[in-house]
Amino acid sequence: MPINIPETLPAKDILEKENIFLMEDPRASKQDIRPLNILILNLMPEKEKTERQLLRLLSNSPLQVNVEFIHTSTYESKNISKSHLSQFYKTYDEIKEKNYDGMIITGAPVEQLPFEEVAYWEELTQIMEWTKTNVTSVLHICWGAQAALYHHYGIRKYELPEKISGVFQHRIMNETNKLVRGMDDAFLAPHSRYTDVSEEEILANDQLTLLASSKEAGALLMMSKDEKHVMITGHIEYESTTLAEEYERDVAKGLDVNVPTGYYPNDDPDQKPLNRWRSQAYLLFSNWLNYCVYQETPYEWDSVDSWSI
Fold first, then answer.
1. Are 284 and 104 in contact (CB under 8 A)?
2. Which residues line the annotated binding site?
3. Is residue 149 within 8 Å of residue 165, measured between CB atoms?
4. Of 105, 156, 155, 103, whose CA–CA distance to 133 is shortest?
5. 8 A C-beta contact, residue 39 and residue 94
6. What are the CA-CA distances from residue 69 to residues 12, 123, 235, 257 (Å)?
7. Residue 235 is among the residues annotated as catalytic for this protein
8. At the fourth CATH level, which superfamily is domain 3-306?
9. Which of 134, 131, 123 has its CA nearest to residue 152?
10. What average pLDDT score do residues 7-26 get?
11. Residues in contact with 76: Cβ distance below 8 Å, sequence separation at least 6, in sequence order
12. Residue 166, φ and ψ in degrees, nearest 5
């Protein structure tokens, strides 16, 4: 999938070196096709790294994708320059009159706070309400998944005795669901969080379908039965070294953290970690774009009334 991104976005040079198919605005405008319009609410502190991770996974499909980024206006990130935000990001107020085929809401390092104490919670709930009429399907990641489960379905998160960090095996719970089509019966995925949600509550909710779970890390992947919301509690978008960078950061802060489980060869932080989840991550994103977005979105968004759930 050629991804249409701004020519000067810093992630562009890195992704091109990986042979990711990117397309700039002038070329994209000459193609007589209907691209998918994807909005990304990037709540992660290292925004450029998250941009790169998500754009990479959105690239693996034959359709053209236009990507826009938004950030919260009620909280200003301290880890990104104002010039980067002003050049490549918009706010909710700037896009709220538009419609999007798909949206991604990322995780955020606020999971140990009650939802209502997060600085931008009111703004986020406004955005999540807006997606009900203006977005075909929304993919929520990590804390973003917990926020969606709480806001849309009343499922609360709870604090764990210690941080879940590592790469864990998961099993497909519903192999006939199109979102996991082609995925292995058992596959690996990274987790990095201090909180969890109840698998029993997810299974008991008649609006949700649990699609993948781990004995060690709990529920990973679930989808609403109307296919409007997809929730991933882990970080399948992570690069090979992301967990290592987080571990080294926590150690440098003097935090009492364990070596990420199942991540380093022989559990030795001096050895280079291997990415053993990449293919499943690509496939899951491709399935979401195809089955939940492309196959379901209206060809023309003339008005909100032209599409109903």
1. no
2. 163, 192, 249
3. no
4. 103
5. no
6. 14, 16, 19, 33
7. yes
8. Class I glutamine amidotransferase (GATase) domain (3.40.50.880)
9. 131
10. 62
11. none
12. 150, -170
pLDDT tier for residue 17 given thresholds of 50, 70 and 90: low
pLDDT in tens, 89-137: 999 999 999 999 999 999 999 999 999 999 999 999 999 999 999 999 9
CA dihedral for 247, 214, 124, 180, sign (positive or negative): positive
Phi, psi of 168 (to 5 degrees): -120, 155
Q: What pLDDT score was predicted for residue 306?
A: 40
> Can 237 be counted among the known catalytic residues?
yes
- Going by the annotation, the residues of the binding site for substrate are 163, 192, 249
Q: Residue 184: in which H helix or E strand, if any?
A: none
SS3 content of the chain, % helix, strand, coil (to 5): 35, 25, 40
Length of the chain: 309
Q: Is 151 a catalytic residue?
A: no
Q: Which two tokens stand for residue 304?
A: 């909100």
The tokens of 242 are what?
Answer: 């992301």
Kindly name the residue from 152, 237, 246, 292 that is annotated as catalytic. Answer: 237
* CA triple 245-250-254, angle to 5 deg: 145
**Alpha helix (H) residue ranges in the chain:** 11-17, 25-28, 47-58, 82-88, 92-95, 121-134, 143-153, 199-204, 242-252, 278-287
Residues 69/9, Cβ–Cβ less than 8 Å? no
- pLDDT confidence of residue 25: 52
Q: Which of 48, 68, 71, 142 is catalytic?
A: 142
Q: Tokens for 37?
A: 């319009």
**C-alpha distance from residue 31 to each of 24, 115, 251, 252 (Å):** 12, 43, 49, 49
Q: Which of 140, 152, 191, 235 is catalytic?
A: 235
Q: Residue 60: its pLDDT value, please?
A: 78
Q: Please give the pLDDT value at position 308.
A: 37
What is the spatial distance between Cα 145 and Cα 221, in angstroms, rounded to a whole number?
Answer: 9
